[in-house]
Design goal:
Length: 212
């Protein structure tokens, strides 16, 4: 029986490499991206739906990138477009630490709670015949590189998130993985992952899914 994994997140789920020049689009190939690493590690009988959108936040419309960066409608669309799912991973919060949103760690966690309320709703669980959720807390940013202006103050927020995410995941009966215990962001732009981090994270995610 085929099982389906959906990975829902932002640019680090999409596979954006560390940015050297702002405004230049790039994406790692499928052999590097952590969702592909994870589904391969899970073995035969698994299929993958990649739902990573660069710039996506857990709850904020972006004044520059657009209102669709708010994940709430995006998650509803994704869950109604695919399935039936067996596992959903949620890794968001990096973009929520941007200075312009003025969000506290507690406020960022509230955004994750909103996504969990959608995923765990009777409507979505019934639609898919029940699926499990793994909340992944992203590693904290480094305030350096070409993106540093937008993430001023973001590192302290990111470092405060793991225990808050863990408690929220437990409250909703979801699994939890602290990505910062396994990988770090690239010093090139302080936000995105190097290829070796993608591989390490993918293997850690597969192990966490096996434990759900």
């Amino acid at each position: 029986m085929t099982r389906i994994l959906m990975t829902f997140g932002d640019s680090n789920t999409h596979g954006t490499p560390p940015i050297v020049t702002r405004g230049v689009y790039d994406r790692y190939g499928p052999d590097i991206r952590w969702p592909r690493i994870a589904v391969a590690a899970l073995g035969d009988g698994w299929e993958l739906v990649e739902e990573g959108l660069p710039g996506r936040t857990a709850q904020f419309p972006d004044p520059l990138m657009g209102a669709h960066m708010d994940a709430r409608d995006g998650l509803k669309i994704a869950l109604q477009s695919h399935g039936p799912l067996d596992v959903l991973t949620l890794m968001l919060g990096t973009n929520d630490t941007k200075t312009m949103f003025g969000a506290t760690p507690e406020g960022i966690t509230a955004g994750i709670a909103g996504l969990l309320s959608i995923a765990m709703s009777d409507e979505m669980q019934t639609r898919h015949g029940g699926f499990k959720v793994l909340v992944i807390c992203p590693p904290p940013v480094l305030e350096q590189g070409p993106l540093r202006e937008g993430i001023f103050g973001g590192r302290a927020k990111g470092m405060a998130l793991p225990p808050l995410y863990a408690a929220m995941a437990e409250n909703w009966g979801a699994g939890f993985l602290d990505a910062g215990q396994h990988i770090a962001v690239s010093p090139v732009d302080g936000v995105h992952f190097e290829p070796d981090a993608h591989r390490t994270l993918g293997l850690a995610v597969a192990k966490a899914i096996e434990g759900l």
